[in-house]
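It would be a great kindness if you could assist me with a short task in structural biology. I am sending you one protein, given as its amino acid sequence and as whole-number tokens for its backbone shapes. I would ask you to consider whether the tokens describe a fold that such a sequence might reasonably adopt. The full record is reproduced below for your convenience.
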Amino acid sequence: IQITHQGVADGQQQAVGGRERRREAAVPEVWALGAWDELLDSYADAGVPVPRGGSRRDTAEQLAIPGGDWIAWNVDRAVFSREGVAAEDAEQLWQVVDTRISERRAEMSAWARFRSAHSLASFGLPTVAELRRWWTKRRGDSAARQRGTAARGES
């Protein structure tokens, strides 16, 4: 489990667990892939639906990530090329990703940064809004079933 604490006022982030493992991977290819995962997690935690199953380039385009083509291309190069990437390339990728995340957070309100910092969405858990929709639908379905049962004279 990754436990994250982010200063709401200045946008500084300290992470314990997952983020350090991503940044300090021994293999530059894994390090580069960690940068991509961190970028997508930042979008998910901010409440943005992150498309799954498409290419990195398509995902970057759908999320309108500034420089997303370059980021996606470099991560794909790290993962799929025979030569892989150098540690310097992975470090540059992390710097660009950190910049994109910082720029995005700077555009958010203090409350949105707070919610993002404490969100569990990047773990694949539903957001509060999703839970509310599910619960409302479930209550509505239950009430409809009860009305149908009562109309048929069943108890």
Remarks:
- The chain is about 65% helix and 5% strand.
- Helices lie at 18-23, 28-45, 56-63, 68-80, 87-106, 110-117, 128-151.
- The longest strand covers residues 3-6.
